[in-house]
Amino acid sequence: MKRFGMRLLLVLTGLGLIASREAAIAHPHVTVVAKAAIMLDAKGQITGIRHAWTFDEAYSAYATTGMKTGSDGKVTKQELEDLAKLNVESLSEFKYFTQLKRGKSALAFASPKEGYYLEHDGKALTLHFVLPLEKPAALATGQSLRIDDETIFVAFSLAPDDPVTFEGPAGACKIGIRRPAQSLAGSAAPISEDFFNNLKAGFSEQYASSAEITCP
């Protein structure tokens, strides 16, 4: 099983090498459609983010090559345990591609809790994991959640329906979704290599989605 998990590790290692070069611009190698739940305790404080990331079918097929499937064509959670573990552990180097900010200040995350897993629907893999905050934070206007890779080696987009929700008592607080004019994940038409070669510093701001919190 570990030989399959190493495939993602190699991809993420490549991402780390790209991210370490200031001027590097990456063509997306993996696309991910993300859903997230902002987890709240009984006091309405944010305690963490519950993630569900669905990988593109091409990457999913590559990552599961050689794994046993059932009669329904799906790979079982048990078969995917090693790959899920390596996914979550290796993501720490990249801060889980997750930013939760209060204004311009980023809130600190702890390591993911146990219970993470991968599921396979017969075509695509979805990674489920909880990313806890180091300390609970009061829910307030001006907080924002962003899930993206600034190098665009991994192209993230938020799911079309209910991409970010509250899990717990949010009172009258609401979530607004800000989407870019153009998404690099799941584009209807291929984007040319010249497009990526001509991108300038700060380009990822044009293509990142975010969830904005407002409270009365």
Sheet with most strands: 6 strands, mixed
Based on helices, strands and strand pairing, what is the structural class?
alpha+beta
SSE run: HEEHHEEEEEEEEHE
Radius of gyration: 18 Å
Under CATH, the topology can be stated as: Acetylcholine Binding Protein, Chain: A
Strand residue percentage:
25-35%
Give the helix proportion (percent range): 10-25%
Whole-number average pLDDT?
A: 81
Low-pLDDT residue spans: 1-26, 186-192, 199-203
Description:
By secondary structure, this protein is of the alpha+beta class. The protein has a single domain (2-214), classed as Acetylcholine Binding Protein, Chain: A, CATH 2.70.170. Helices cover 19% and strands 33% of the residues. It contains 4 helices and 11 strands. The chain has helices spanning 2-19, 57-63, 81-91, 193-197; strands spanning 30-40, 45-55, 98-102, 105-106, 117-120, 125-138, 143-147, 154-158, 164-167, 174-178, 210-214. Strands 1, 2, 5, 6, 8 and 9 form a 6-stranded mixed beta sheet that branches. The longest helix has 18 residues, at 2-19.
Summary?
The chain has 216 residues and is of the alpha+beta class. The chain has 4 helices and 11 strands, in the order αββααββββββββαβ. The chain is globular.
List the helices and strands and how they pair.
Blueprint: H1 2-19, E1 30-40, E2 45-55, H2 57-63, H3 81-91, E3 98-102, E4 105-106, E5 117-120, E6 125-138, E7 143-147, E8 154-158, E9 164-167, E10 174-178, H4 193-197, E11 210-214
Helix pairs in contact: 1-3
